[in-house]
Amino acid sequence: MAKTQKPGEKPAKPGEYVERGPRGGEVPEPREVTIEPGDSPLPPTAKPNRSWERVGPPKKSDS
């Protein structure tokens, strides 16, 4: 299982993060955020006791 981080923590590295449940499992309708270099801290989750898991590198913007 990948390492999860709590809201308010400094992200381990930039990338796409998805919301996970209290024990690291999937949740219905998870929030997804893009963390760019220099962004800090991780945002709040939709419900208490959830965490963030990095699922890949940052998506490239079309602009």
The helix count comes to 0
Low-confidence spans? none
State the total count of DSSP E strands.
Answer: 4
Indicate the proportion of strand residues. Answer: 25-35%
For the biggest β-sheet, the strand order reads 1-4-2-3
- Largest sheet entry: 4 strands, antiparallel
The gyration radius over C-alpha positions equals 11 Å
> Structural class of the helices, strands and pairings?
mainly beta
Question: Keywords for this structure?
Answer:
63 residues, mainly beta, 4-stranded antiparallel sheet, 0% helix, 29% strand
How does this structure look, described?
- By secondary structure, this protein is mainly beta.
- It has no helices and four strands.
- The protein has strands at 4-5, 15-20, 32-35, 51-56.
- A four-stranded antiparallel β-sheet has the order 1-4-2-3, with no helix packed on it.
- It starts with a strand and ends in a 7-residue tail after the last strand.
Give me the secondary-structure topology.
Layout: E1 4-5, E2 15-20, E3 32-35, E4 51-56
Antiparallel strand pairs: 1-4, 2-3, 2-4
Give a short overview.
The chain is mainly beta and 63 residues long. 0% of the residues lie in helices and 29% in strands. The protein has strands at 4-5, 15-20, 32-35, 51-56.
